[in-house]
Hints:
By secondary structure, the chain is an all-alpha fold. The protein contains three helices and no strands.
Amino acid sequence: xxxxxxxxxxxxxxxxxxxxxxxxxxxxxxxxxxxxxxxxxxxxxxxxxxxxxxxxxxxxxxxxxxxxxxxxxxxxxxxxxxxxxxxxxxxxxxxxxxxxxxxxxxxxxxxxxxxxxxxxxxxxxxxxxxxxxxxxxxxxxxxxxxxxxxxxxxxxxxxxxxxxxxxxxx
Length: 170
């Protein structure tokens, strides 16, 4: 994963932070929303029970039965409409908060990835410069024939590969 520019430790830390965020949202955001919805449903259920009780009482009186029954239906429908509107608003707000938090996490992850990429590029430039300086210093120290020149380049590259492998392993 190091060759791909992925820092396994940072990835694990980010995953743990994301899991912690989900758990916190579940505990502090979703449960209160569910409690509010349950309370609203209980009020609706209570209102519906009250409407049923009123219907039974008014069944005895034929004239008032139609007027009270129509009123109870209007109230029940308004309560249901209000409950749906409130529930829809609360769900919409919770989704928006979750979406914003996810966007925020994504932006933070992208910024961290960009910083790590810049660091890796800088390290690669430094390694390349070190390799060039090392090769040049060897060439300057001794005068070479073509065969010695090729041997020097091969040994320098093998040495650089060995150092790269040692860095990757650590």
